[in-house]
Amino acid sequence: MLPSNALDAIRCCGPIIFPNIFMLLKMLCCLPVSTSTPERSFSGLKRIKTYLRNSMKEERLNGLVLLSYYRNVVITPDEVLNEMAKKPRKIDLVL
């Protein structure tokens, strides 16, 4: 009976008899099954960078892509103010 997946094939194939095939099967087992994260990133980039916004600088484009990717993360205004208060300023912010 033929093996149905790479793990079954490794069990059937001995490293002494078929060393090259065994090494190939080991590499095959290490490959990811899907690449959904990069596909999701490229699809988000395609939505953001339309023809009309094609003249956008890279820094702004990166910021918009990050906002799109992490849109489910909830950040409160207090967290933003606390982060801003930690950084040194020329003028003290009194709240």
UniProtKB/TrEMBL annotation:
One Pfam match: Dimer_Tnp_hAT
Domain of life assignment: Eukaryota
Domain (HAT C-terminal dimerisation) ranges: 18-71
GO MF, one annotated term: protein dimerization activity
The name this protein goes by in its record: HAT C-terminal dimerisation domain-containing protein
Species annotation: Macrosiphum euphorbiae (potato aphid)
